[in-house]
Specification:
single chain, 157 residues, 8-stranded mixed sheet, 39% strand, elongated
Length: 157
């Protein structure tokens, strides 16, 4: 696994010219999950956990794979690249925990259970792009808009 980000997470919404960009390194961790449930029996799932390489937050994607886009080139004068603070081994642990939603934890484990497997050779490091547009921050991967981007303005001062 390469420790430097290469490529960008696929984008639902592309940055517009003039947007300020925040590039956050993320680990793209494909997981294989064996799920047991009283109601559904055994299921074998393939999902992807996106682990933020700056602060460790996880996002579980219900996709078999997320392939970084290597053709995109950001067209902006202002961009801020955050540094990778999470080690690959910690990212793997966070992905294992992030692949198990809260309804599979605590006493509910009796009813529903998940076993997570990760192939370390398939872990990739890519950039997640947030576009700052006026007073909004747009997560280009999900297309979600975050209001009140006052804190993001401090990055570009």
């Amino acid at each position: 696994m390469d420790s430097q980000p290469s490529g960008y997470l696929p984008m639902k919404e592309r940055p517009a010219p003039g947007d300020k960009l925040i590039l956050v390194p993320v680990y793209v961790v494909p997981v294989e999950i064996l799920e047991r449930s009283i109601m559904h029996g055994l299921r074998y799932l393939y999902q992807v956990v996106i682990v933020d390489g700056y602060n460790g937050r996880t996002t579980l994607e219900d996709k078999k794979s997320v392939d970084p886009d290597t053709d995109f080139v950001p067209e902006t004068d202002e961009q801020e690249c955050l540094e990778l603070k999470i080690s690959p081994s910690l990212a793997k642990e966070l992905a294992e925990h992030g692949a198990v939603p809260s309804e599979f934890q605590s006493w509910k484990r009796v009813i529903r259970n998940r076993r997570v497997s990760i192939n370390e050779r398939k872990i990739q490091v890519a950039w997640r792009i947030y576009a700052v547009r006026g007073k909004e921050i747009i997560d280009t991967f999900t297309g979600e808009t975050i209001r009140s981007a006052g804190l993001a303005g401090m990055l570009f001062s």
